[in-house]
Specification:
Pfam families: NUDIX
Oligomer: single chain
Number of helices: 3
Number of strands: 11
CATH class: Alpha Beta
Helix content: 10-25%
Keywords: Hydrolase, Magnesium, Manganese, Metal-binding
Largest sheet: 8 strands, mixed
CATH superfamily: Nucleoside Triphosphate Pyrophosphohydrolase
Strand content: 35-45%
Protein name: NUDIX hydrolase
Cofactor: Mg(2+); Mn(2+)
InterPro entries: CoAse, NUDIX_hydrolase-like_dom_sf, NUDIX_hydrolase_CS, NUDIX_hydrolase_dom
Distance between the termini: 40 Å
């Protein structure tokens, strides 16, 4: 089974944690136009954290030097392409981004608290498998990205609070 890694980037805006999501380019062959975290397939046996950091730099132009801390989160699997996705929480200390327009159309900042306040919805795929989605005005986060968030929200808040960089109320 192929393995991929993603960064679950968080920045503090006005003392509140925000998740950074991307809208994948509609030109991509895999998951075009979908909302995701920066990430991709592991190359040449590299460590999964290395994959996630490399992809973050390639897709949104954030250097690993701008990461205050990283924490491994629970793995999930994409249901359509059957890829193991290994997420890593990363708190960023700068809000400077350079988008690779071949891979990313736009970055989206979503208050972490919105995911706590919004109940995920179960959706049935054509294959008969179930996944989840979050619906916000003008934004739907579904599939592996939504499952990473739902399965890790408490741990993300705990790690951010323990970090001392963000006050979680």
């Amino acid at each position: 089974m192929k393995k991929a890694a993603v960064i679950v980037p968080v920045v503090s805006l006005e003392d509140e944690p925000y998740l950074i999501l991307t809208r994948r380019s509609r030109k991509l062959k895999s998951h075009p136009g979908q909302i995701s975290f920066p990430g991709g397939i592991r190359e040449n046996g590299e460590e999964l954290l290395e994959t996630a950091l490399r992809e973050m730099e390639e897709e949104i132009g954030v250097s690993r030097d701008n990461v205050l801390f990283v924490h491994s989160l629970k793995m999930t699997e994409t249901l359509m392409s059957r890829i193991e996705v290994h997420p890593f929480l990363a708190l960023l200390n700068k809000r400077e981004f350079v988008l690779n327009r071949n891979e990313v159309e736009v970055i989206i900042f979503v208050k972490l608290s919105l995911f706590q306040q919004t109940k995920e919805e179960v959706i049935l795929l054509p294959s008969g498998e179930e996944t989840i989605r979050y619906r916000f005005p003008g934004l739907v986060v579904w599939g592996a990205t939504a499952r990473i968030i739902a399965g890790s929200i408490d741990e993300i808040l705990k790690k951010l609070s323990e970090s001392g960089y963000i006050n979680i109320i």
